[in-house]
């Protein structure tokens, strides 16, 4: 029997998935296993797979099939219509960006990343500036082309690649609300915490092997499927591989036993999302996660809202004592809790606590919009960064390295990515509120090391829906409210201003 | 400027290489890193990449380009003509085997491999027999189709996939010579060794970590590029990855410190071949190794002829003593030499010494030809195996597990592969004779841990030529003699019958 156009599209997109899933394992390998001298070769391998995928998406055959399947969409089930919509979105993105622009961007970002690293090491923005300029120019072209094709503002055209359907309008509404509340909130929290400081710091050395064993035990308790996934170490923690073979990485610092574990828990949040994606849709666009903001909501929900909290620390305390052979006041739940929820005005985003974190994002969002529009000249970025950082958070970087050179995102062309982090936090706050309402005994479950109820709720309300709906639709459905910062603010106030 | 048909072919085959090199790293990952539960998914990933490669090779575009490039071959350089010839060979193989047959074979061999494992564990050939029957039937179809397309005898059509250009005619000539000389030779050697047995066995436990460190040190001395390659552990040792990122695996048994090292040296022989392939031809058919027999010649040359020999053991002795903190009569060069060159009539091919090894291959070659022709019925294989084993080597398996069930090759459909092992040994013998003539101080160099001269000769005479010539042409050119068993027999006589 002849395949329908829709069925033929499924075949084509499963081919696309084969290229991408191979590339994904190769990227994990690059970060964890590959000898350093092989990076050029690996770059060629990845570029070749990427080229195949791009050629597939822009082929006349796929566009023809999309037209014919659209014309017959009435025979499709809902999830298939969603699948078709996601296929079209991917095709539109690819077809809007000419191959020549992709390749110029690849070269420019690869150069810019090297120069960024050098500039950061020497804390000298001027080394990086001309290369950032070049990247920005190319991104403006890309944003204009994709924006025209998808009928989006230039910034939204770029952001759509990371968090499909996320628009500046929503971001602005949420960030305006955060921007209004945060300065006062941070002030209150720091004030409040002044009399609630941890009484004991953790000192000593904790072997990486012991940290790994502990992290593995906790991941197992959470249901991470070690028969279909791994935990390894790499310079920068990430979650890679493919659903069905998920590869988490982290870093273990012998002096900071909690940092490595929190990193693992963050990645486990990502991983459990991937684990929960429906197997039946695997390899199809509808079966993918719902973008970076949603991904980040899952990692933050687990790390920040669940694990940096007393019930989880009740569960963790005996494990810490057993794993490291320790005891004493610094390992008491209340002390651990205070250590893990300290709020401070600090310069480095990745080390920031959850209360001040959004300020770092708001700043980057503002700046990257102005840079793209040409309202802020690249050469003026350091001064703009430093003065606004001082204005918004009350701390001023004394060097570019701890200021505008701290993140790699702009160097690699990821304009439009930063909002996903803060939107992810907001989503996490909103999901957490509904999760607590749905499971009144959540705290007791967590304290007892029972995580299945929580993950079951997330699976039903988020994971299993994959990309079948837009992110705001998913949130509306899961929480009965439209996406807003309100729940996150309530959560932070409740947690950090408790009496 | 428009690309010529030949240049377009280069592009197409570099795409093919991208699929294959991704698959190669994924296969390494499967054996070394992948969680066990992900094997079905990985199978799908590999099948998808394989399907892409097959589709490319059988595309009308590639056939059209081959015709047009052939018509203009006079403008090409020699290596490009060779490249074209290899492209055609690959296309011919792929186009001769219909997709449906490939997929039936894939399913049949996957089933057969499982049943083989079960049969081997229970030592019961009857569990495996019907599945082997099915594989053989499909292979007969494949052999007929490929044979017709390439104008080859059915057996040669299968063997050509493993060692391009190797024909039964050559195999028969060499195996006849070996078959005549071996029984007497084995008898003489065992007789001769009776008064030259090792005086001390090696006992004790040798930590895998120490074995790995020693193996790494020796590999470094040989010039293995650890900035573009790795050494890991897996159940079955192999050399994988891709040139530019070569992944060796081995097994370390704490009770057998020499076995693991010899395994590493065997794989290092393969790896150095891959390392020596010309970078300029990377990704093109002309740039590949010259098939399995040639590959095996490189691993056997290093393991058997170079390393299981006194000069190498002079180099190795102090390293063993330092690595394991040992000394004593069992670690003396002459004792190590005797331990590593013991000749015994034994049942298991992979454990056989280099003198009796070809007997195992001759037996399999005979049998697989008769099975394919239908002259030997599958059900009669165990009896044929056992009686001929007794006849040729004087030992009779007491069970199928140590008889016809010991190798996986037939289960996975690799009929035509076995000869490569013995032809590889013969090539190694012939290359070794020429290498010694070209480097009269070879023994002194090896004893001093200087391996660069040897590898330089191999690079010039074998590695750098890749697939630019046929294997017999390469041997003729490197040794000034046509391929024959004579040099190998001289080598074995000189080494094992020395006074």
From TrEMBL, chains A, B:
Binding residues annotated for Zn(2+), in chain numbering: 266, 270, 296
E.C. no: 3.4.17.19
Protein keywords: Carboxypeptidase, Hydrolase, Metal-binding, Metalloprotease, Protease, Zinc
UniProt remark on cofactor binding: Binds 1 zinc ion per subunit.
GO BP annotations listed: proteolysis
GO MF annotations in UniProt: metal ion binding; metallocarboxypeptidase activity
Keyword S-adenosyl-L-methionine attached: no
CC cofactor: Zn(2+)
Catalytic residues of the enzyme: 267
The protein's role, per its UniProt record: Broad specificity carboxypetidase that releases amino acids sequentially from the C-terminus, including neutral, aromatic, polar and basic residues.
Similarity comment: family membership: Belongs to the peptidase M32 family.
PANTHER family on file: CARBOXYPEPTIDASE 1 (PTHR34217:SF1), METAL-DEPENDENT CARBOXYPEPTIDASE (PTHR34217)
Name of the protein this chain belongs to: Metal-dependent carboxypeptidase
Species this protein is from: Povalibacter uvarum
